[in-house]
Amino acid sequence: MENSNDEIDLGQLVRTVWRGKWLIAALMLVFGALGFLYATKVAERVYVSTATVSIESNQSQATDLDALVGGLSAEQPSLNTEIFLIRSRQLLRRLVVAEDLTNDPEFNPQLAEVSPFSIAGVRNMVLGVPEPRAYSEEELIRIAVDRLRDRLTVTNPRQSLVFEIGVSSGSAEKSTSLANALAQTYINDQLLYKEEQSVEAIEFLAVRTVELQNELNEAELAVKDFAAGIELVSPEALIAKNRQVKELRDRLVALEAIITQRQALLSMFNSFDPVTATQDDVADFDNRILAQLFPTIGTNAGDRARFTDMFDLERGRAQSDLEQTQSQKATLEVAISNLEEEVANESRDLLTLQQLQRESEATGEIYGYFLTRLKEAEVQQGTQQADARLLSPAVEPLRASSPRVMIITALTGILGAMLGAGLALLREMNKGGIRTASDLQKLAGRSVLGQIPMAPIKKRDKLLPFLKAKSNTPFYEAVRNLRTSLLLANPKAEPCVILMTSSVPGEGKTTTSISLAHSLAGMGKSVLLMEGDIRKNTLGQYFDGVQVKAVDHADSMTFAESKVSVDGLGFDLMLGVRMKANAADFLSSQEFKDLIAEAREKYDHVIIDAPPVLPVTDARIIGQQADAILFAVSWDSTRTVVVEAGLAEISNSGLSLTGLILTKIDGKKAKSYGGATRYGSYYGEYSKSYS
């Protein structure tokens, strides 16, 4: 059996809500009225007033000087920072103090009156008014700042340099005053900030300028003292001395060359041997006299003596020249060393002097810059302008921004309607009854043979007069349809013994049994209506005034004596009696089986009105003797789980269910459920065409 419960039937959902329209309308009206009363009588009026402030990112200076304190940037982060600044506790604290908000009941909990309709008012009525708490002045200011922040909104419209400062209050005048006061406080705060920054800058520049002036004086004095303590005349004189050192070094190189030559000449003199020497050897001395005397030393002893004397004289002269040159070299080296040391000392002094002069000049430049900025700051003091200006002052609102009576009324009404719809759906879910034949057929897996509308009677004893007088009603047509479906269920063999049962009491099976017996009798059939519920004897309540004897297994009455014909209905009736013995034992006895067998022989149809299957086992016992078993289910009353349990009892007993009957259908409600019954609505709609 396929289950489609997971699918949502929107049509059914709408019909369910529509069935609860009066509940929804009532709750909508009640909630709407409560919302209207709250908005007009309970809720406090709130007025919102907004002041507009614009940011001037490029301001002209009163003097043609660089601004000492920079202005605001037009970048979004800077604008967001200003929003936080406007909402800052420091700024709001100034406004609280300036406007004396600590003495305003709206911002001071000690002065505020508690509304009897508020949570605190209800608590005070239940628990009593608590002792008032004492607040310090600082706590009152903090509370006032918190409440002011809760009533403050600051927005920056996109692509603009504008701030909208809105303040809400219970008074239109107060909200306007606070919005304008906060805007002006913000502008004044900018001026105050710039003044404070200017004073701090001037103080810093003044102190730093004095320090730099002292440093400059010390630097200049250090230059003078150092210049006076050194022997350096000028950088030009140092350059001349460096040139002199170079010239002396050149002379030293020349002397070293001469010494080398003279050492070589002296070596030649010392190694000369007149005996072995040749004319070329004498020529190497580059001495004209020796060259003239050398050829004569071999012939004349006097010439040899003169040559030897001259040679010794020249050798001594060479020795003397060498020593003289070496002495000059030593003197020159000492002079160069002294001059180089003097140049090195003067160079160090010159570098130190230049460093002192540079430091003095740098200190002088910094001192000049700070002195200039100090003078500019002193000139600019008092000329600063705020970066914001009041573009549009707040005006008193003509009406309160909240509560919005129409919106609150509409929303509460919608809430009531939603609650009503929810209750209607919840009621529908809790019912869990079966409303259509298709639902019943899907649940049981058996055909629905009939759909019987509710009989238009208020008491059970009114059923027989109704059946006698009203044979052309939707109810009776539905019974005829049940009769036809039952007889055609097995065309080869019409059922003789027909058992009528249900899951629980009150499902209309007895009414259906009587009506079916009357309908079958109308076809000329011989029909016996037998009471199967001998525990409660419900069937007899429908036949008030009919004189019959009840069937009891202890009686010795014959079958003919136990039954009675009902005048005007055309069928016989056999009632039961409340028994002392167990009813199940009697129904299981051979005596009861013989009774059913005799009824089969005498009647075309025997309808047994059996008790429900869930409370007792009687119906399942009687069902063993039945040719057809009909199962009645009360429309929109019997829960699905109860029906399933009843069907399971029949199935577990090995009985075969012939069909189901959907009973006690309310035709008008059935239309709203979307399950129009054939005779519950179609008959009423088309019966005039056949009347």
Automatic annotation (TrEMBL):
Domain AAA per the UniProt entry, residue ranges: 500-632
CDD domains: BY-kinase
SUPFAM superfamilies per UniProt: P-loop containing nucleoside triphosphate hydrolases
Segments forming domain Tyrosine-protein kinase G-rich: 353-429
Keywords, in A-Z order: ATP-binding, Cell inner membrane, Cell membrane, Coiled coil, Kinase, Membrane, Nucleotide-binding, Transferase, Transmembrane, Transmembrane helix, Tyrosine-protein kinase
Transmembrane segments: 22-39, 405-426
Domain of life: Bacteria
Cell compartments where the protein resides: Cell inner membrane
Enzyme class name: transferase
Signal peptide: none
Entries under Gene3D superfamilies matching the protein: P-loop containing nucleotide triphosphate hydrolases
Keyword Transmembrane belongs to the record: yes
Family: Belongs to the etk/wzc family.
Protein name: non-specific protein-tyrosine kinase
Native source organism of the sequence: Octadecabacter ascidiaceicola
